[in-house]
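[User]
If only I could read backbone structure tokens as easily as an amino acid sequence. I have put the entry right below:
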Amino acid sequence: MPAAAAGPFRRTDRAAREREEEALAPAATRAAATRGRAVDEPEDPLRTAFERDRDRILHAKAFRRLKHKTQVFLNPDGDHFVTRLTHTLQVTQVARSLARALGLNETLAEAVALGHDLGHSPFGHIGEDALEPYVPGGWHHAAQGVRIVEVLEHLNLTWEVRDGIRAHSWKIDPPPDTREAECVRYADRIGYLSHDALDAVRAGVLRPADLPARARAVFGEPGSQMVGAMVDAVVSGTLDPGNGTGRVVMAPGPLEAFHELRAFMFERVYASETAAGQKQLAIDVTRRLVDHHLAHPELIPASYRDTAADPVTQVVDYVSGMTDRYALTVHDRLFDADATAQMRPLLRLP
């Protein structure tokens, strides 16, 4: 019998893609070599383990809520300001670009990047500060992200993706185990420094000339030029023969400008006096919600209640999962208040 004519498509299943991963760089993490899941599952015939994780994160409720969570500017008066969701998508793009350029596993980098901010509270890092007193040792969105995928939404992700979410923040030790998660660490900072600077200029909080001269000389203007230059600096630093760490690193010269820009952004934007009024209001709203639900735990929806946890953890799970607008709406309804109207956009420079 003659062989069937080749059609316009070709089946590319999990096994085929796992074979493709064999050609990645020695430092890359192969899906076939994953440390596995907390609960064993049969392998998917079409998708690798990391592809399944990526898809599960994209379909998670916590991922959908990111569209109404703050990145930096609370209640921004414009459609082009970055939200926690658009930040996540930008970080994912940068992480994939880094992984591809370094011969690493793009899909693992993508999955970690998509999940890295699942645990963020309403009002960005301000909400994180508000929740800190309720949790021994402090509350951190990275730990909450792991709790979401492990306990609250039962995503049963691979160890590598959970580890990347756990340690995507530079302040967390030990650092992530995979080089792909290191790409996400850099992608996160590249994303927020470049687009937060752009948003600060758009909001009138900064003028372009206010940015550190060295950062502008090394990376260019905020936006695509800055992102591209920062990505190039990580790729060149990692591939430099003098990089004896075996890790993903930024070239030393650009790294100094990178740190200078970050320090500037914390001083002039993230911790500025301009944002002080917004910050206190967001903290007050968050803590009043926590205190009220501690007194009335029956108000927590059953779908958000982990009955195996203590009452404080259950309440913090619920409040930290709220979007900005939902937190304001619930607060105003419970307390007959008007915090929503008070949450005005940042004042512009004269």
User: Anything to note?
Assistant: The first helix runs from residue 14 to 21. The domain at 45-274 is CATH 1.10.3210.10 (Hypothetical protein af1432).
